Amino acid sequence: MRVPLLLRAGFVTLAASVLVPVLAMPAAAHGRGSDATNWDSRVTETPGIPGVSWEVHGGDELLELVSVEQEVTVLGYSGEPYVRVGPTGVHENTSSPATYLNEDRYRTDLPPGASADPDADPSWERVSDGPSYAWHDHRVHMMSTALPREVEADPGTSRLVQEWSVPVVPSEGSETVVRGELHWVPGPSPWPWLALGIVAVLPALLGVVRRDSSAEALARPAAVVLGSVALLNLSHVIDDIAAMPLPLSTIVLSVSQTLLFLLIGALGAVKAWHGGDGAFTALAVGSAAVLVGQGVLYLSVLSASQLTTVFPHGVGRFIVAASMAQALTVGPVAVLGTRRMVPDEEAADIAHAASA
Length: 356
Known about the structure:
By secondary structure, the chain is an alpha+beta fold. The protein contains eleven helices and ten strands. Helix 5 (191-201) crosses helix 11 (313-355) and helix 7 (215-232) runs parallel beside helix 10.
């Protein structure tokens, strides 16, 4: 019957559209979308400590110290020892307020239950066996989500917003500082990328213009486009692993969620290619998963200047644009195919009733 079939297709598609963003929320804390920004924090001067390197990740999100030859102590906001990084591992001072404040990008107060005194003797806790550590250092980024007045007045102009410094003490030397600058760098317009994405997924409509009216002829071009976009998004798995120095648990969660969205999209494409009952519903669900899980959640990638990716920025923007644009071509094919399948189901119901 017409109504039950359309209701089933609509319900499954709606459920996918609701569940996908809900499942994505935990990973969004360090996802490509949330890390896309117009803030660019740069290390401009280092003290030249042998075996030590510094890098800012995610535009201005994480400051990373790598020390492979000697132990280096980073000082906290009151000049107290905060973290020690060296070839034998990483230790945090649990007496330092910075240990708790740096757990969150915008944290200004100690969390409930935490107790710290910068004047107390250091209490060191081992947090890593490796020679590197990355943290939210509040000195290298803005501590407000609101734009500074000068940036808000002219967001289209690049500008130096502030200079910063982080004091450190190497084991073989005296106290020194790492210096840097925080810049506002406006990003590109998203519209050319969206236009390019739409052009790239237009082949999904080839089945609509063909004379062959079979379900397979209609579905297969859309299935190829959806499957191709899903495969392109495997680059995001690489970014989840390598683009940001994150804890293993966070990486595993991000990779798992990315693969889940891509698997839904890929299975929808495979089912649509083979045809049969539910092919167009699978196509719609797969398209919705890619649209929301790899497109809408990362919309800011299209207009940000600083992207968290190991690939050229243009590659990341194109993939996000294609992930969104495919819904404009694959989606209508799924709706049209569902409508074409209705008469077949009605005929089957009539035949079943006649034989009963």
